[in-house]
């Protein structure tokens, strides 16, 4: 038996009663009328290519059968639901034009439960689709394997990325990667990935970035300036005799 519930003026719970001719039966479990509430969500910014993992907070979020989440007209994918949380991943911003790719686009969070809206809290403001990030510089380009150096990435619209990673790919197609820090609008810091190989000569590694669903910077073939990084052997300091003095107006080293 399949049926569609009518509305209820209040929250209530009761067993389902089924009457067939002169026979009456009751469900083992209770059916609950409840009002879902969406109280907040994060983050509220992401790239127009999508790939941002969004968490929605509220109450009674597991209400109904057909639950959907949209940011404007862009559907939030891979939805997972519990009573107090929803998680989904933004899809590409819809209706992209050349003009819209270069500006921010504010979109309304829309959640439906069997086609009906929930109660929204005051913190549920618009989601901002921002242009995909642009990388303009990466430093340093030469380093050694055991260093704790950080790779400094500069550009624009980096703040829309929430799960950035840097990857070094070697000629044999093996790679190492590390998770970068949370970017600001124009800057991102990535720790140098840990190498699992011994470096005895200059080693070239191709650069690649994982920036949510933005694919532009996965391959740098069109950007030869950033295509590779040089890894040199660790420096060796040999023992020397005597005292050597390096003196400047502000520094003296012995």
UniProtKB/TrEMBL annotation:
SUPFAM superfamilies: E set domains. This is Plexin-A2-like isoform X1. One of its GO terms (cellular component) is semaphorin receptor complex. One of its GO terms (molecular function) is semaphorin receptor activity. One of its GO terms (biological process) is regulation of cell migration. PANTHER family: PLEXIN, PLEXIN A, ISOFORM A. It comes from the Eukaryota. It holds the Pfam family TIG. Transmembrane segments: none annotated. It comes from Paramuricea clavata. InterPro entries: Ig-like_fold, Ig_E-set, IPT_dom, Plexin.
């Amino acid at each position: 038996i399949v049926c569609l519930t009518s509305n209820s003026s209040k929250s209530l719970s009761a067993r389902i009663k089924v009457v067939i001719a002169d026979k009456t039966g009751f469900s083992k479990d209770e059916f609950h009328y409840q009002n879902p509430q969406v109280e907040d969500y994060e983050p509220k910014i992401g790239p127009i290519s999508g790939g941002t993992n969004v968490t929605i907070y509220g109450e009674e979020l597991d209400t109904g059968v057909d639950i959907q989440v949209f940011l404007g007209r862009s559907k939030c994918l891979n939805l997972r639901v519990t009573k107090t949380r929803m998680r989904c991943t933004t899809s590409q911003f819809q209706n992209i034009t050349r003009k819209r790719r270069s500006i921010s686009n504010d979109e309304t969070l829309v959640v439906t439960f069997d086609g009906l809206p929930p109660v929204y809290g005051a913190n549920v403001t618009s989601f901002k689709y921002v242009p995909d990030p642009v990388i303009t510089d990466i430093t340093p380009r030469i380093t050694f394997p055991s260093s704790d150096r950080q790779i400094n990435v500069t550009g624009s619209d980096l703040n829309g990325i929430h799960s950035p990673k840097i990857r070094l790919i070697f000629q044999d197609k093996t790679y190492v990667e590390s998770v970068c820090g949370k970017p600001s609008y124009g800057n991102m810091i990535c720790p140098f990935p840990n190498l699992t190989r011994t470096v005895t000569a200059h080693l070239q590694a191709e650069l690649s970035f994982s920036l949510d669903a933005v694919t532009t910077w996965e391959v740098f073939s069109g950007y030869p300036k950033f295509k590779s990084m040089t890894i040199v052997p660790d420096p060796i300091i040999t023992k020397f005799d005597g005292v050597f003095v390096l003196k400047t107006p502000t520094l003296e080293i012995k």
